[in-house]
């Protein structure tokens, strides 16, 4: 009986191992396109191209964008910076919202949010982002009154990730002054690398600096997850936000 049970257990182990190997092979085919270009070193690029590609990482690019289109009207005092990485997940894709085990790691792609308060702290809110569909073209700038900024209109777009974080913090009793900020990221959008979580966490970190408060990391991740649920209509688990809060970009 013992030998039979052992053989049965061994056969199950083999089947499980084979299934795991097959799953990892399938995932590697999905992930492969996502990793293209993640390294800053690319032997196919010329030295000039390589230098140009790494000359303005997101933080520096966001600072440059802010100074170019948003500095006029800012209070000119403290420049606040929020930054958060994207992630890949080694195991557990689509099980985090079912309380399964996951193993995400941060990647060397980030979203950066850079900005200042308005001069009087009571004006409109302004956000600027590059036009990724038209590289080299003018940036996109959106402006909101305070009422518009903190109101969930139920029609999610990219700035809902930012506005949702600010609105939920305000709901918690935090004082959020009007501000203007530039946002630049190199986490591929729609590539399964959590660009949305990266934007949410970068926003929360930016607002911590701007407003002078500090959140517990777990609470920050939970708040950003809540933004996905309530402002962006995405019933996600906690993995992406948790990885972006606790992960460190290499």
UniProtKB/TrEMBL annotation:
Pfam families recorded: GalKase_gal_bdg (PF10509), GHMP_kinases_N (PF00288)
Stretches assigned to the GHMP kinase N-terminal domain: 161-248
Keywords, comma-separated and alphabetical: ATP-binding, Kinase, Nucleotide-binding, Transferase
Keyword ATP-binding: yes
Gene Ontology biological-process annotations: galactose metabolic process
Domain (Galactokinase N-terminal) ranges: 78-115
Gene3D superfamilies membership: 3.30.230.10
Gene Ontology CC entries for this record: cytosol
Molecular function via GO: ATP binding; galactokinase activity
InterPro entries from the UniProt entry: Galactokinase (IPR000705), Galactokinase_CS (IPR019741), GalKase_N (IPR019539), GHMP_kinase_N_dom (IPR006204), GHMP_knse_ATP-bd_CS (IPR006203), Ribosomal_Su5_D2-typ_SF (IPR020568), Ribsml_uS5_D2-typ_fold_subgr (IPR014721)
PANTHER family noted in UniProt: GALACTOKINASE-RELATED (PTHR10457:SF7), MEVALONATE KINASE/GALACTOKINASE (PTHR10457)
Family statement: Belongs to the GHMP kinase family. GalK subfamily.
Protein name stated in the entry: Galactokinase N-terminal domain-containing protein
Native species: Lotharella globosa
């Amino acid at each position: 009986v013992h030998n039979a049970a052992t053989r049965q257990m061994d056969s199950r182990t083999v089947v499980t191992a084979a299934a795991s190997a097959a799953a990892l092979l399938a995932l590697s085919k999905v992930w492969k396109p996502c990793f293209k270009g993640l390294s800053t070193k690319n032997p196919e690029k010329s030295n000039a191209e390589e230098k140009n590609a790494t000359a303005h990482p997101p933080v520096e690019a966001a600072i440059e964008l802010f100074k170019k289109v948003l500095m006029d009207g800012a209070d000119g005092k403290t420049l606040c910076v929020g930054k958060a990485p994207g992630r890949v997940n080694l195991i557990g894709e689509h099980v985090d919202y079912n309380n399964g085990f996951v193993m995400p790691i941060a990647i060397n792609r980030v979203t950066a949010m850079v900005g200042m308060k308005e001069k009087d702290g009571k004006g409109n809110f302004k956000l600027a982002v590059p036009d990724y569909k038209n590289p080299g073209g003018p940036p996109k700038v959106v402006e909101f009154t305070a009422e518009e900024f903190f109101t969930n209109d139920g029609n999610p777009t990219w700035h809902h990730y930012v506005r949702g974080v600010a609105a939920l913090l305000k709901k918690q009793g935090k004082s959020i002054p009007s501000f203007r900020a530039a946002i630049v990221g190199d986490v591929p959008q729609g590539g399964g690398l959590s660009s949305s979580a990266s934007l949410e966490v970068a926003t929360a970190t930016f607002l911590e600096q701007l407003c002078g408060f500090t959140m517990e990391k777990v609470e920050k991740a939970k708040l950003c997850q809540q933004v996905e649920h309530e402002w962006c209509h995405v019933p996600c688990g906690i993995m992406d936000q948790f990885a972006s809060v606790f992960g460190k970009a290499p």
